[in-house]
Amino acid sequence: MQDMQIETARLRLRLLQAADVAPLSELWADPKVTRYMGGPRDPAQVRQTLQEELASGHIETFDLWPVIEKATGQVVGHCGLLEKEVAGRDEIELVYVLHPSVWGQGYATEIASALRDDALERLGLTRLISLIDPENTASERVARKVGLRLERETVRPGGKRMRVYVLEAEGVRIVDLGPKEDAVIEQAARLLVEGFKVHWPDAWPDMTMARDEVRASLGPDRISRVAVDGDGQVLGWVGAIREYDGHAWELHPLVVHPEHQRQGIGRRLVLDLERQVAARGAVTLYLGTDDEDHMTSLSGVDLYPDVAAHIAAIENRRGHPYEFYQKLGFVIVGVIPDANGPGKPDILMAKRVC
Ligand SMILES: CC(C)(COP(=O)(O)OP(=O)(O)OC[C@H]1O[C@@H](n2cnc3c(N)ncnc32)[C@H](O)[C@@H]1OP(=O)(O)O)[C@@H](O)C(=O)NCCC(=O)NCCS
């Protein structure tokens, strides 16, 4: 991996240099950093290993690399992909280790997302894992935000119980929907009708309205992306509309084929869309998700006067998708009471994407 270099808005991951050895060996000796990663390492030993790596000039495909904070030029982390055997299976682990001085700024999510993209797109991997101590809730949050889901627990050699988070690509590709692809447009329209008919029957009741919606998504200041399987079948569709001078884009709409829901396709479509809007300079991705069918505790009640208190106490009663978005790092930023008639609100959610 001669050209290993990943750049995000605030960070740069690059090959090891001599000046990185001291800060990295300090990082691995820090008890806070290594609390859930097997405890502090002997700095002399880490130094030696890194110096040997430098001297050999050999560059591994799977390794940890220094992460530099662009604003300061400081080494703030050691992140990358490592080969690991887990319960008899060869896995590639996504590893993110950051200095406590930069915790709480979203750096782990930023660099882990970039490493995930690199792994899936450039290296063509179809499965990534992360081994997480069950007490390490901050790391679990990062794993979920970058699209990994809890698969199971495992016991590591030595007896430590760890959670196995995974991301699987499974041959599904996400591509632009083009204006000439009539068959794909037809499939996307059918998804809208099928996907929304149970809980939002008025959204796209027939194919004519659904086709119009899909065609509108191909216009200027729009993004329209489909998840397609190896046979060209459309399994999901996501669109977005440029708003607020491009600072914020609205996700609209999102649907996954009913037979392929809960397989990670919705997650991949949204993560892909986040990259698409971030690449166009956006800061925020937001959406409105209606509750017309008593799916949450916000439906069927008068939300005034303390609307915020209702939001704070929201409960998911019948699988409303707001929870899906929460799992991807979106937060509820508001609600429009009675947006679809009395007691039928629109729940507003947003996520920072840069
Ligand atoms: C909402 C929707 C897009 C989710 O897509 P999906 O492919 O089923 O979702 P994923 O498999 O990627 O799920 C990601 C995570 O969210 C969870 N999730 C998915 N739908 C959920 C729901 N309705 N309620 C709670 N959690 C949900 C999954 O269990 C998974 O959790 P995990 O990380 O703990 O495993 C899909 O169910 C759909 O098309 N629904 C009908 C249309 C719709 O509601 N669109 C959104 C309107 S704003």
Please tell me about this protein's structure:
With 354 residues, the chain is of the alpha+beta class. It folds into 2 domains: 164 residues, 3-Layer(aba) Sandwich (Aminopeptidase); 180 residues, Gcn5-related N-acetyltransferase (GNAT) (Aminopeptidase, 3-Layer(aba) Sandwich), CATH 3.40.630. 28% of the residues lie in helices and 30% in strands. It has 9 helices and 15 strands. A 7-stranded mixed β-sheet has the order 9-10-11-12-13-15-14. Strands 1-2-3-4-5 form a 5-stranded antiparallel β-sheet, with helices on both faces. Strands 6-8-7 form a 3-stranded antiparallel β-sheet. β4 and β5 form a beta hairpin. α1 runs antiparallel to α2, α3 packs across α4 and α5 crosses α6. It starts with a strand and ends with a strand. The model has no long low-confidence stretch (mean pLDDT 94). The structure holds coenzyme A.
